[in-house]
Amino acid sequence: MEHAASAPKGSEGEPVRRECVDLILRLWECRHSWPLSAPLKNVADKLDELLAPKPRFFHSTAKTSTFLDLLHGLEELHHREIQVCLAAWVAGLDLSEDREFLLNHSEHLDDSELTVIQRLVEIQDAILSKDAHLDGKPCTDFSTLSKAEQEKLVRASIREIGKSRTQLLRR
Q1: What is 115-145 written as a DSSP string?
Q2: How many of the other CB atoms lie within 10 Å of CB of 4?
Q3: 10: which residues sit within 8 A by CB, 6+ positions away?
Q4: 113 FRET partner, CA 20 to 30 A, in 15, 31, 64, 167?
Q5: CA nearest 162: which of 51, 74, 86?
Q6: Is the pLDDT of residue 61 over 50?
Q7: Cα separation of 31 and 18, whole Å?
Q8: How many whole angstroms separate alpha carbon 49 and alpha carbon 115?
Q9: Residue 20, exposed/middle/buried by CB under 10 A (0-12, 13-18, 19+)?
Q10: Which helix (H) or strand (E) holds 133?
Q11: Distance CA 63, CA 47 (A)
């Protein structure tokens, strides 16, 4: 996580940040075999940092650059793709034990663990609700769809974002 936090901004540091997110997700999948408080200690802040919208360049009073506008557009599209995939992945997680632990034993979680679990529950609740949205578009009853139908919907959302990318690049 330290490498990801100290990685250069922009596309140059993206592989390091992506590797960190992948490691966190793999750790999370094994969480039921850990003792309380480990190894998620101090993960929540880094997870929030890695999954949050990327900060934009400082606003300048100078005339904007076509390349800078392109960069901002591509960053936004990439963030949308990540959010779609993250929501779909979290929808398939079994968080029943985590939800029960939150209700009955949350005092045994440190702030980082509490934040991670609450965020995953929040994402899952949003995508599995009857008025769920995927990339800002309604996808009612996502939870009732088969895995194949869910995948089809996610891929369609990613393709729509891809169309936006194509339009951005044609300007």
Answers
A1: HHHHHHHHHHHHHHSTT-EETTEE-TTGGGS
A2: 20
A3: 71
A4: 15
A5: 74
A6: no
A7: 20
A8: 13
A9: buried
A10: strand 133-134
A11: 35
Cα–Cα distance for residue pair 152/158, rounded to 1 Å:
10
Considering only CA atoms, which of 94, 114, 118 is closest in space to residue 106? 114
In terms of Cβ atoms closer than 10 Å to its own Cβ (0-12, 13-18, 19+), residue 41 is exposed
Report the 10 Å Cβ neighbour count for 144: 10
pLDDT band at 120 (very low <50, low <70, confident <90, very high): very high
Which of 23-27, 36-40, 55-59, 74-78 is predicted most confidently? 74-78
- Token pair, residue 6, equals 């100290």
Task: Name the one residue in this structure whose structure tokens are 């076509």.
Answer: 66
Q: Is 56 left (phi over 0), alpha (psi -120 to 50) or beta?
A: beta
For residues 154 and 1, give the distance between their C-alpha atoms in angstroms, rounded to a whole number. Answer: 28
Residue 70 CB neighbours (<10 A): 13
